[in-house]
Records
---
Amino acid sequence: MTDNSRSGSDGARDGRPGTRAAKRADKPEIPQRRGARTAKLASLPLGVAGRATLGLGRRMTGRSQEEVAAELQAKTAEQLFSVLGELKGGAMKLGQALSVFEAALPEEHAAPYREALTKLQEAAPPMAASTVHKVLDEQFGTSWRERFREFDERPAAAASIGQVHRAVWSDGREVAVKLQYPGAGPALMADLTQLTRFAWLFGKISPGLDVKPLLAELKDRVLEELDYTLEAQAQRAFAAAYADDPEIAVPRVVASAPKAVVSEWIAGTQLSTIIASGTQEQRDRAGSLMALLHYSAPARAGLLHADPHPGNFRMLPDGRLGVIDFGAVARLPDGYPPGLGRLTRLAVDNDAEGALALLRNLRFVRPDVDVTASQVMDYLGPILEPLREPTFTFSREWMRGQAARVGDPRSEESRVGRSFNLPPDFFLIHRVTLGSLAVLCQLGATAPYRELAEKWQPGFAHD
């Protein structure tokens, strides 16, 4: 398998920005008027209502309820993620975040929109060439062309608030140029606010899926992600921590500005490709390295990569895991909180009383909550299966089983789960851990999860 990124040859054959893309008519990159964006998002529930009426008519003509439900679900997913991708901003960011948790959904709910999610996280309508030039003028000055030998005006990748161009720096290095969409900030906040009102829509494609907590957390981190200077700082810290590492590759930052980052280009096979068609050896290698990054980064870089969707990772030809996009990070200057590792160890060792006492001490269980140690272990025990054996094989089936077990409002585990309190300083760690596990399940990887936890997570290894 090979990397499918576009090369820089067509757009800049003579070392200057190409003219082919520049001749295209200008068009708005992000619909910035609040009314226009709101209207597009408002079309979603209208579409759902229309399809529901159509479905009723089809059932009356003799088609089974299951057939009609499957068709409506697929059409709803197609419209939903098409609109999210078109709007970019917070809409696309939510779609990317949801793509991580696809592994937790029942197959009949996941299958209709798995392909739509993959398309969403890998592509979006590009900025016009004139807008690209304007952003570069503003961020690097009007003589920015002198910094590049070549610059491909066609985007090699698109993200929620920006897009990436392939180029050649003045010293001959291939680089990735990440540019922020004009108007991304207001669009991002408006989308997330509007999507909160339409959160119930996601239950139409996955009954029981609650996106409100995810939307609230995304809104909390918006300002950081809009400042590419902060992203460049985080990337530099990761690159220094993993410099010359034999297993993890982080591209070095070449230049940065508030709305632009230039970093070394890394080519490889995207994780989404390995998820779709990789060999078991590739899956195991990718999964093991994802787990290594998750456990080791706080200790080595004082940071946790907080956007673990497949589009941000690729396997390089030399077998390393390439990591990109550092807009979302958790800052952990002292590494993982030691209490988290101790809690995990107590639970893995089936020390129910000790686990409950520490849960209360860490404020995961409030003093007024009536819950027993055995109930806590019934809830936590299955989730910790990957840490009980030297290696563990992750799978969609395992993830779905956990989601069904704790997500069924009628179950005892669900009641116990709802009694837990998640302290603010643990929220992002919790979300990223779930996201990383979900990617491992998408990969179907067998990984030495326990060994990595013992090596890198403070408090987990036996003294």
---
Amino acid sequence: MMDFKGMYEAQKAFRSRIDYKGSDRFEKLILALQVELGECANELPESFKFWAHKKNDLETALVEYVDGLSFILDLGIEIYFEDFEMIYRLSSKDKDKSVSSQFNRIFSLVARFNWNKSPITYIELISEYLILGELLGFSFEEIEEAYYQKNAVNHSRQNEGY
């Protein structure tokens, strides 16, 4: 299983570098997550663009996927979530689930979480996000490694005034 506590702490450290005092941080994080979900899906045209003949770009999709994970972790910080033992997969990989239906499920959960900010919805969101990664063929090790690589890039960007 992934080291959520370690990634959560890394996200907290990155977040502390961004001096944002607005009262709308949560809603901006929700929108940012939705944008990253769309960007990830866009790298996977075989999963939903039945009208196109483009191939999936799994390498770029993984980068977009971990961008989304960063925002999910940041949303956990927003609700002061720290019950890491509660992060578990609610269901195992379902071979009948399609990637497009999983994206739609996650978009729905993000909308629900936007309204209720419940730790249970947050856990469900993480769980379904992990299932999406599994459906895409990403191992937990690949996801964690890609997260830390992107976190380093994000720190570098902050150093450069991004």
---
Amino acid sequence: MLTHFNEKGLARMVEVTSKETTHRVAVARGSIYMKPETIMAVKNAAIKKGDVIQVAQIGGIMGSKKTSEIIPMCHPLMLTGVDLNFDVLESEIVIESVVQTVGVTGVEMEALTAVTIAALTIYDMCKAIDKEMVIGNVRLIEKMGGKSGHYVRQGEDV
């Protein structure tokens, strides 16, 4: 059942007043794929715009806090924690976010937004040397809290 439509079929923000307040956590992951020489420039701090990972960390945190401003039906949330981790591999940077709150609705969108904005920040900082970067495989890995309980992604794309 789609809950973002009212009885007239028009878009609405879901009413969550009666939902139980719980500790909620979401983990998301995604990658930005790039040329090995771009990876080396990131590792060697040779990107003219600055420390790519540090700036992407801040961008991801800022993005998670602005999710309700860019995703139309998201509730504004008081986030109690946001962290991102970056795994710099041979031809990709894997980005993982962990977002937390205590509230009546989950933080999956905030975790996904954090990963996406961090990847876009990396793209912006490295585009002068690599315009062929690809952002992809952004997905929810795990969520905890709320009525639907604990979810852990299964399969090869974890």
---
Amino acid sequence: MEKETLAPHTENNWVRPEARRGRGARSADTGRFEKEQRIPLDDGWDSLDQDPEPVKTFLMADKSKKVIAHNTSPDIPFDQTVNPYRGCEHGCIYCYARPTHCYLGFSAGLDFETRLMVKYDAAERLEEELRHRRYHPAVIALGGNTDIYQPIERDLKITRQIIEVLKKFNHPFGVVTKSFLVTRDIDLLGEMASRNLVRVFLSITTLNHRLARRMEPRASTPERRLLAIRKLTEAGIPTGVMVAPVIPSLTDHEMENILAAAQEAGARSAGYVMLRLPHEIKQLFREWLEEEAPNRADRILHLLQSMHGGKDYKAQFGHRMKGAGPYAELIAQRFRKACRRLGLNPQKRDDRLRLDLFRVPLDDGKQMSLF
């Protein structure tokens, strides 16, 4: 791993704006499982007053032997995921995956978006698992933890390699992304879609370009995400929109406009998720509010707490995604009515991805089986 040089911090590991330009988090507190904490310390040469270096991105190899992770959560509509990356350079301040970086000894703040773990051999490991005689096909969600089309994918192309493996096996999968880069793989996705083997969702939080840049500094702009929906739909790829997350008193008023814009671009299905603040995200989001929306901070947090029994977040299955109470029900009603008016989520007898086409191809250089 390249030697790390963290930018000088002030109290609570808050990083100066000139050092974290283009990043989402404001701080880099040590992960909750660590026994030691990093604190700023002047070396006697007025180092804390000097101009800090920009926080850089570091890539580290993830040598996991398996890439398919299994999910047992009853409120998530998939059983398997493949994540070629841990951490995400998009830097979305609200990302529910941030706390997972603490399991690696990193912070959920700036480390999550700058200390990235990469599974360079993910495609090879995936093929090995799909060939295992005990493997039973089930829809795979690509990027259930972090975005598979984050900026480093442009050069590494690991996601494309994974899709090529899935195509080789006729294996169904779904994608949720914030990146226009997904259109790079239209050739593969289109061929898979012709056999009902793929669904793609673009996640849109806001149509406000300036707000999006502050919340999701390295994700594609809202306009580019809508364009991605259009291009994917024109290529015959079933595409939907996720209004996620819905942030009370900040983006909630945009729900109908987001759904309408996505429907006009070609989306035929939609979903939404309320803002979630598990573990370290509570503090990270508060830090962000203090800088970006100080006048709305109390109102936003009050509405969030009204959906979680007075707490910032309740992790109960079936509750965590949508919340409960009058405000949560109002959002649910607005979503249902907008979808009905726009013709999103039409009732179909069966629109599930196909599992019956799964085949294990003949391994190069090996004899065919008699059975």
